[in-house]
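Obj: model holo form, ligand = 2-acetamido-2-deoxy-beta-D-glucopyranose.
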Amino acid sequence: MARALLIQLFTFTILLIVQSSPSTSLLLRPPHGGPRQSMLLPLFLSPPNPRRHLQRSDPQTHPNARMGLYDDLLRNGYYTTRLWIGTPPQMFALIVDTGSTVTYVPCSTCEQCGRHQDPKFEPELSSTYKPLQCNLDCNCDSEKVHCVYDRQYAEMSSSSGVLAEDVLSFGNLSELQPQRAVFGCENQETGDLYSQRADGIMGLGRGDLSIVDQLVEKGLISDSFSLCYGGMDIGGGAMVLGGISPPIDMVFTQSDPVRSPYYNIDLKEIHVAGKPLMLNPIVFDGRHGTVLDSGTTYAYFPEPVFIAFKDAIMKELNSIQKIRGPDPNFNDICFSGAGSDVSELSKTFPVVDMVFGNGQKLSLSPENYLFRHSKVRGAYCLGIFQNGKDPTTLLGGIIVRNTLVMYDREHSKIGFWKTNCSELWERLQISGAPPQMPSAPDREPPPTTAPTQVPDHVLPGELQIKQITCDMLLNVSYPNLKPHITELAEFIAYDLGINSSQVRLMNFTPNGNDSLIRLAIFPAGSSDYFSNATANSIIAQFAEHHVQLPATFGSYQLVGWNIEPLEKRTWWQQNYLVVFLAVVVTIIIGLSAFGMWFIWRHRQQMLNAYKPVNAAVPEQELQPI
Ligand SMILES: *[C@@H]1O[C@H](CO)[C@@H](O)[C@H](O)[C@H]1NC(C)=O
Ligand SMILES: *[C@@H]1O[C@H](CO)[C@@H](O)[C@H](O)[C@H]1NC(C)=O
Ligand SMILES: *[C@@H]1O[C@H](CO)[C@@H](O)[C@H](O)[C@H]1NC(C)=O
Ligand SMILES: *[C@@H]1O[C@H](CO)[C@@H](O)[C@H](O)[C@H]1NC(C)=O
Ligand SMILES: *[C@@H]1O[C@H](CO)[C@@H](O)[C@H](O)[C@H]1NC(C)=O
Ligand SMILES: *[C@@H]1O[C@H](CO)[C@@H](O)[C@H](O)[C@H]1NC(C)=O
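Output (holo C-alpha cells):
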C-alpha cells in the first residue's frame, strides 16, 4: 500500500512532449518500475527561454505569494499546495512540480477524469473565465477554435485539455493579489494523473506556461520562488512565489539555465561523516548534470557516486544491523535499531555534506537520505539509489526536507537553508532580524581591497574568522551539570558535524539554577580560518536550536556570540607565493591549454546543439528526466 503510493512521484517530474502533429512520438518507459527505475532519455532538449532575464526586480518592491504545502512526499508521493481559480474562487490541491510547466485542473467538461479530492473546475460558474482563442502561438484543436495542450508523462500517464485564462488566487497568507493567468482545463487524464487524489499539477519549471514565468513576465513578482518541504512523518511545509530576503546563512550554488532547462546545481563533492568520497567532480556533471526536482521523491546517483556513497555509509554504520527492505522486489539497503525518534537519528547516522563549486556546503541530516522502513519499527532505508546507467544526478524532495530551497532564477542560483519547514514563517521573521552581538566589541571592519582571485571558501571582501565564541545558558544547575561537562563539547561537535577537537569549553559558571558556559569553536586542523558564511551558519545552528543536546543538559539559549577575525594581513602578503607560481604555471601551460580548450569547446558545442523537433512548437517545454 505504502509502496504503491510511493510510485507516484516519478510521474510528476516529468515533462512532456509537445503534441499537435499526429506524428508526435510518445515517450515510453518500461512498465512500472516505481521510483526505483532509472530516468528516461529525453528525445530532445529545448533551449532556455531567452526572455527570462529581462525583468530586474527585488523582493522589497514586489509582493510575493506565501502558500502552505500539504501532504507528504513519502506517504502520498507528493506535496500539494492550494490554488483558487475563477470568480468566485474554486479551490484545488495541486502537486508542486519544478520539473514541469503547465498548471492544470480537471474541467467539468472532462470526458475522462478520475475522482480527486475537490470538485472539478466549472468554467460556467466563473465570471472571469476565458478560453484562449486559437492563434499562431498555440496548438489549436481540430476545429481551430481553442488553444489546447497535451502532456504525455512517464508510464503513459497523460493530461490534455484546453488552455484558458482566469483569475488565480494564492490564498489568505499571500500579499500577491489574485491575477489572471493561463492554465489547463483538463478534458482527459490517464495513468497516475487519473488515479491520484490530488486534483492536478502546479508547474514551476522554466517555460512560458509556467506559473512563475507568467507572473514574472507581467512584472508582478521577482524572478524567484521557494519551496520548503516538511520533515519525515510531518510533511506539509510552505512555499513562496516571488522573492524573499534570503536568511544570512543561506548556502548558495550556481544554477546554470543554459546548461539544461532543469534546475541544476553545481555539485562538486560529497562528504560522509566529514570524509570526502574519492570521486572526480566530473561525475556530477554527466548528461543533465545535477538536477533538483521537487516532483521526484528520492535521489538517484550515477553508478560510481552511488557505490562510493553506499560504501561510505556502510562503513560508518558497521555497528548497527543491516536488514531486508520492506519490499522483496527491491534491493533496499536498510538498518534496524536506530530508534523511532527522528530527532535522534543523527546520533546513529552520519552527516552527509554536499559541497558546491564555490566551496559552500549543504549538510544533509539523516532524514534527507533515509526513509522509514514500513514494516520494522525503528528501521530506516537509504533513500538514495543508483540511477541505472544514466550519468545524471537527480535530487528529489527527500534531499530537501526541512530545507528552504530558494530558486533564484534572476541571479541563476539556488539557495539552501536548513530550518523547520512547519514553522517557516516564524523562522524567516527571526532570521530577518539577526540577534545583535552583545559581546563583539572588537570586530574589525571588512578589508576594503577585495582580492581579484579569492582563496577557496572566502568571498571577496569577506572576513577570515579564526575563532567563534558562543555563550550559552543551560537550564541545568551547576552541580548537576558538572559531571557531564566533558561530554558537552563532543555532543556539540557531533551536531555541528565537526571534529570534537574543534570545540573547546572555555568557561563554565553557575547562574542561579542555570549554568552559563562559554565555548570556543576553531577551524579544522587543516585550515586556519572559517569563512564568514561558515561562521554565520554555526551561530545560526545554535540560535535556531539545530544543535540538540541530550536531556541531561536541559534546554539551552544562545545568549551571546563573537567572531574573531584572523589578524589582518593583506591578501597579497598571504598569497604572493601562490600568485607567483600561478602566474608562471599559467604562462607555461596557457598556450597549449588554449588549443585543447578550443577543441573541447568545439566538441561541446556539437554535443549540446539543440535539435529542433518541430519548428512550429510555440512553448518551451521541459523533457522527461
Ligand atoms: C485562510 O484559509 C484557510 C483555508 O485555506 C482557513 O483555514 C484559514 O482559517 C484562513 N485564515 C484566515 C486568517 O482567514
Ligand atoms: C518542527 O515544528 C513542528 C511544529 O511546530 C514540530 O511539531 C516539529 O517537532 C518540529 N520539528 C523539529 C525537527 O524540530
Ligand atoms: C559577515 O556576515 C555578516 C552576517 O551575514 C554580515 O553582516 C557581514 O557584513 C559579513 N562580513 C563580511 C566582511 O562579509
Ligand atoms: C580530529 O582531529 C584530530 C586532531 O586534529 C585528528 O587526529 C583526528 O583524526 C580528527 N578526527 C576526525 C574524525 O576527523
Ligand atoms: C531554584 O530552584 C529551587 C528549587 O527547584 C527554587 O526553589 C528556587 O526558587 C530556584 N531559584 C531561582 C533563582 O530560580
Ligand atoms: C529545561 O527546560 C526544558 C524545556 O524548556 C524543560 O523540559 C526541562 O525540564 C528544563 N530542565 C530543568 C532542569 O529545569
